[in-house]
Amino acid sequence: MEYTEYIESKRKAAKKISTDIRERWNNRIVTRGLHLLGEQGALQYLADYGRGIGTAKVVSFALCAESEGYPEIAAGFWQKAFELETGQKALVSNLENSSASEITKKPKSSTQPKFVNNIDIIPELPPHLQPGRIVTMQAVDAPSERSYYIENSDYWGQPKRDGNRVVVIATKDKIYYQSRSTRLRQQPSIELEIRLVEAATKLGSFVLDGELYYKSVTGSEHRTGSQAATVNIESGFPTIHPHVVYGIFKSLFFKGNDLTQVTESDRIAAGVVIGKLLAANSQEFEIVPTFRTLEEKALLARQQETENREGEIWILHNCRYVGGKDVRTFPMVRTKYCLELDLLIVGLTNTKVAGRPFSAIEVAREIEGKLVPVGTVGTGFSMEEMEEISRRYAANPHGVKIKVRSQGLTESGLLWHARFLEFSS
Question: What is the pTM of this model?
């Protein structure tokens, strides 16, 4: 089905736009002025609230935007809906004859990109640092006690951020965002995009490795904008929107140099240089601090535990870059204060609250081929995520896994203060 045919079919089958969608349009889109930003407004909304969002809801937002008289932002939602339902990218050129969904096209860059297998190739970057090809260094669970890394001068410490690993490939013409799984993702923030372009124009192309997370009004960190928005609502600030932050760990490419060939300390230092320029003009960037001395590392551990943070990352400061997990030399390890588990959904408890599909998630661990119930998870998810959990469980009652964070297990083996994090891959 062509893109224009898809849109027309959805318009013909459209029902009344729900109150839920109208409320989100007013409270999350109009109050932030996203409806005035065209397709970029849709991209921003989906970046903040669209993790796990279903096709039907995206279509509803497109229809709502059209009914409110904003076809440009509607086009952004239509493109996302088409991609979700068909697995294909929308051919925007097909919209030229669609009077209800015309799009203002961006001017083409003077530098025409090269493509290999439909992926942009940036001439100044080596093959292993091209968008969609970067294998990040990944921390493994520490084989030694926390005190070992504090006392060992070869290891430096950084606080563990509670978000999603994102590599940023920045050029003056285009910014790419790559997940840990090497998939390219949408821009998380218009502000981020603007500042990155400005920095790349001034400094030249660079590659950053970091963590993208969303902060609530309480300062808590979350993997999605929906999770942070839920905390804002529960804290009595429903109109304050999540604050997206990109925490910079290090740089992998800077000033024409492939930094995967040097030490970790050099990569961190380059990340600080780039980060200072970005953070000076925007609250959306953070240079994740590095703790080097015994006293600094002991302070890091005390702060993380006192503030109920997730844990710490310990890096061999003189290590070479090793993509993936290295359990031979342990160049990067993590120590945690919380337990993270991949659990199977075995049921959804009933609720009397109108509009909520369930009250809590019943979960179990797979141990030696058997399912062992470990209790319930009743927080950490937004309404959109609840609907997606309910949809996936109904479609596959024995095959939906989620990642859960808990402060530990009780003596009877049940989760203690568990929160939903995300769907397990």
Answer: 0.69
